[in-house]
Design goal:
The structure holds two protein chains of two kinds.
Chain A: H1 10-20, H2 24-47, H3 51-67, H4 71-86, H5 92-116
Chain B: E1 19-23, H1 27-39, E2 43-47, H2 50-60, E3 64-68, H3 76-87, E4 94-98, H4 103-111, E5 116-119, H5 124-172, E6 183-187, H6 191-194, E7 196-202, E8 208-215, H7 219-224, H8 226-238, H9 243-257, E9 264-272, E10 277-283, E11 288-292, E12 297-301, E13 321-324, E14 330-334, H10 336-339, H11 350-360, H12 367-379, E15 389-394, E16 420-427, H13 428-433, H14 437-444, H15 454-473, H16 486-500, E17 505-515, E18 518-527, H17 534-542, H18 551-558, E19 561-565, E20 570-578
Parallel strand pairs in B: 1-2, 1-3, 3-4, 4-5
Antiparallel strand pairs in B: 6-15, 7-8, 8-9, 9-10, 10-13, 11-12, 11-14, 14-15, 16-17, 17-18, 18-20, 19-20
Helix pairs in contact in B: 2-3, 8-9, 11-12, 15-18
The chains are: A mainly alpha, B alpha+beta.
């Protein structure tokens, strides 16, 4: 699979599924709800040009998406976090937009995983 | 001691069940971590921010804390600091949950008290390994703490025991009458644990015995020997036993109780103020010095014997030296601490320096303190951290000695025999080899209130006994003693006649009756000698100032009456005493 097309590390996700067992569904729901809120926060912080808060929400999203094996989403959050730390907010809106789109894909794929089960 | 719950070993795979606190504001991350840790068999408490984490820590005091660094309200760094404070002496490993990568942030985590990190995404294997490692670290710390507490407890107990032991030692191995005005001494307060010992006691005859001992080794083993030595010394000196008898008894005891290699270097001095002489026995101590007041010269008395407790009594030499002494003459003695005191160059203080100090001191009263100061200067140390033992005893007139020995007669008048009589007959075999005076003195001292008179009574008894034995039973003429070499001849005859003695006796009759403020002791001494014409002889012989006649006038000066009866082989004295002398 093309790395660009690889949104989720499926091998790792299978491990996570094994660990979480019945809690897996709760986890996915929690992650999707949480991330929705965080992406809203992220956009708001960008609008306010608050680079410190922007960095924090990106950092949090980076961690949580990595935990559900959403590697590309995590990578995008990391880039935003990095820019925010450097206080280079110019052009960051493109990244936020890409992150939003990536999240929609990840949310869909994770939900598919639930049905598969 | 740990306040945490004891570890349970019934978790998954027999591993320790821990109570783990997880604090993360991110719901999905917390859910994953909580699930993984729970699957490891541990108990989990979860918090959404630092404030909640601190509250849960207070409530449950968990074993391990996993903290997210960035959290709302109270962040991970602050929570870590508070938790560390709450944990106090206990080690509660704090692991930071972070995807922070920059060195500065990681350093902040450690500075706040974190021990390690868990990075996101969580890896089950690494998490398991880290929790295991830090649980082991926590247990190790707990063990160390327990051992530390145990050591502290043992140490406290040891110190307490030593204090008690020191009290007991101080009570038993007390320096006796060493506060007497003719004694000066230096003894470290912890001397008993250095193995050094100074004892001093008055004798019933009015003299004084001093003992300086230096046990090999240090600490309790060295101190233990001091107890029997002290008991024997005080017990026997008080009862009038001779220096030889006392040293034999001490040696016998120490040989019996001390392990091989532990012994007691010692010197004992029996000071007679009336005879103006000192009997000295030295075993293993540095040379004892005799200072002559008139010439300001110093004589050395070297040790001639083995220390106490080395050989058994059959090979123990009790030969002592008789040192005639003038008023103001001093005997100085010490343990090897002073002689061997080193200066910065590693040189010993040595005997030569001591002798120099003594001979260069004009005022003999300052000799003791000058030696003390010279040693301090030599070593460059202060007085308080020395462990020297030094003793000086000065020849004085008996009435010059001032000692506080407690108020006689007041408390001791209660109890004990006050109304009694006794006959004590010593026959030939006993007369040959037994000195009855210690036993008799001891018995008389049981009479309440009579103890302060022990010196006088001893003198009276010894005069009466030697008269009865020597002039009575043995029939020795006291005229012999009058000539210059008479004493020696007299004692030769005495020894020879005692050896041949096969019959005869000396009989003591005692009768004690209480009186309003004291008592009256009647002593009658009877012997099997031919007696003498006391009517005519009494005045002529006994009032002279020669040696031979000294006994009776002395007795007369101490008693209410002295009366000869019968054939002149019975003498009766009455000794009245008052409780408040």
């Amino acid at each position: 699979m093309n790395p660009q097309e690889c949104h989720i590390d499926l091998v790792a996700l299978q491990d996570l599924k094994d660990i979480m067992e019945s809690e897996f569904e709760t986890l996915i729901d929690t992650f999707i709800n949480d991330s929705n809120k965080k992406i809203e926060e992220l956009s708001l912080n960008y609008l306010n040009q608050n680079s410190e808060e922007l960095r924090k929400s990106a950092h949090s999203l980076k961690g949580s998406s990595s935990n559900v094996c959403a590697i590309k989403l995590s990578e995008l959050a990391k880039q935003i976090e990095h820019r925010a730390r450097q206080q280079e907010l110019a052009g960051i809106d493109a990244l936020i937009q890409a992150l939003d789109i990536e999240f929609q894909i990840v949310a869909q794929q994770l939900s598919d995983q639930l049905i598969k089960k | 001691m740990s306040t945490g719950a004891p570890p349970h070993l019934d978790g998954i795979d027999g591993e320790e069940v821990l109570r783990v606190l997880i604090a993360d504001d991110n719901d999905s991350d917390r859910l994953i971590l909580q699930t993984i840790v729970r699957k490891e068999g541990h108990t989990v408490f979860t918090a959404r921010d630092g404030q909640e984490a601190i509250a849960l820590f207070r409530e449950h005091s968990p074993d391990i804390v996993l903290l997210d660094a960035l959290m709302p309200n109270v962040d991970g760094f602050e929570a870590a600091r508070t938790i560390k404070q709450l944990a106090g002496d206990n080690l509660v490993p704090i692991l930071f949950l972070t995807s922070l990568r920059d060195a500065a942030s990681l350093a902040d985590c450690l500075a706040a008290g974190g021990l390690d990190f868990l990075s996101k995404p969580y890896n089950r294997i690494i998490l398991h390994a880290k929790i295991k490692a830090y649980a082991a670290m926590r247990r190790l710390h707990e063990t160390v703490q327990q051992q530390r507490d145990e050591i502290a407890l043992h140490n406290d107990r040891l110190i307490h025991e030593q204090e008690v032991a020191k009290q007991v030692f101080d009570n038993i191995a007390h320096p006796g009458c060493s506060s007497a005005s003719n004694i000066k001494y230096l003894l470290s307060p912890m001397a008993v644990f250095n193995g050094d010992l100074i004892l001093a006691a008055r004798k019933p005859s009015g003299g004084m015995c001093v003992f300086l001992g230096d046990f090999t080794g240090h600490g309790l083993p060295a101190a233990i020997g001091a107890m029997p030595v002290s008991e024997i010394f005080y017990g026997m000196t008080q009862k009038g036993f001779s220096l030889q008898d006392i040293m034999l008894e001490i040696n016998k005891k120490l040989k019996l109780i001390l392990p091989v290699g532990v012994f007691c270097c010692a010197c004992m001095i029996d000071m007679s103020f009336r005879k103006r002489s000192a009997e000295v026995w030295i075993g293993g101590l540095p040379d004892v010095l005799v200072y002559r007041a008139n010439s300001r010269q110093v004589e050395s008395l070297a040790s001639q014997h083995l220390p106490l407790g080395v050989v058994d009594n059959s090979r123990f030499n009790i030969e002592s030296r008789e040192v005639p002494m003038q008023r103001g003459d001093k005997i100085l003695l010490w343990s090897d601490g002073i002689i061997e005191a080193l200066n910065a160059q590693g040189e010993m203080f040595g005997e030569e320096r001591i002798i120099d100090v003594i001979t260069q001191t004009e005022n003999s009263e300052r000799i003791f303190s000058n030696i003390e100061r010279a040693v301090e200067q030599h070593t460059g140390r202060l007085e308080q951290d020395d462990d020297y033992t030094m003793l000086e005893i000065t020849m004085v007139r008996e009435d010059e000695i001032a000692v506080q020995e407690g108020k006689p007669g007041v408390s001791s008048i209660v109890g004990g025999p006050r109304d009694w009589s006794l006959v004590y007959e010593l026959r030939a075999l006993s007369l040959k080899e037994f000195n009855p005076l210690p036993v008799i003195t001891h018995m008389l001292m049981e009479v309440p209130g009579l103890r302060p008179y022990s010196g006088k009574l001893y003198t009276i008894l010894s005069e009466l006994y030697s008269n009865a034995l020597e002039h009575g039973v043995l029939g020795l003429g006291s005229e012999v003693k009058a000539s210059a070499d008479g004493f020696a001849r007299y004692y030769e005859q005495r020894t020879a006649k005692l050896e041949q003695l096969s019959s005869g006796f000396v009989r003591f009759h005692f009768d004690h009756r209480p009186r309003a403020d004291g008592g009256s002791l009647k002593i009658m001494v009877e012997d099997t000698g031919p007696g003498f014409d006391y009517q005519s002889k009494q005045l002529a012989e006994h009032q002279t100032e020669t040696y031979s006649g000294r006994g009776i006038p002395l007795i007369k000066s101490m008693c209410q009456s002295v009366r000869y009866t019968g054939e002149g082989n019975q003498v009766e004295v009455i000794f009245n005493w008052h409780a408040d002398i």
